[in-house]
Write the structure tokens for this entry.
Amino acid sequence: VIIDSMRAGPSTGMPTKTEQSDLNQAVYGSHGEAPRVVIAPTTVDDCLQCSVDAFNAAETYQAPVILLSDQSLSHRLETVERPDLASIPVENRATVADAAAGNGAAAAAGNSAYPRYALTESGVSPMPIPGTPGSYVSTGIEHNEQGHPSYTGDMHQAMQDKRWHKLDPLAANSRVTTSGP
């Protein structure tokens, strides 16, 4: 989760003036087609729910989430209702242990054959919790399901489709607007 609290700029700019100058960069600025989620609170009260939504989306969809706020929300003092923290849903990532419980294949594969970027129906691949079986090495280049570099057009397209497909459920959320291929 990346928190971008905008103000008029560049540099120290106008430190007490509000501006949504990073909106285009947050929504459209990337090299290639890299999906991300952008969430923007509209009120001080909305900041908590948007923060929860941001962390839940990052965990659920394994994608970067930008919480896009502005200077006025960042330093405003306001009285709000005390939230019932027990009622706030917390999403957890799909783990290798979850996958192993389902079919045993991920656990049986061992670390060297663990498909960290498996092409799953949902587009979200199970990931290990640090210190548990299923560790992997990730490179900054296109990779296959095991995370090893791959230079084929077919694998690149499959991984690109996977990265966008995993965000499809967000389109059903009335609080979220999505865009992409």
User: Anything to note?
Assistant: The chain is about 35% helix and 10% strand. The first strand starts at residue 2 and ends at 6. The CA atoms of residues 77 and 97 lie 43 Å apart. Strands lie at 2-6, 37-39, 65-70.
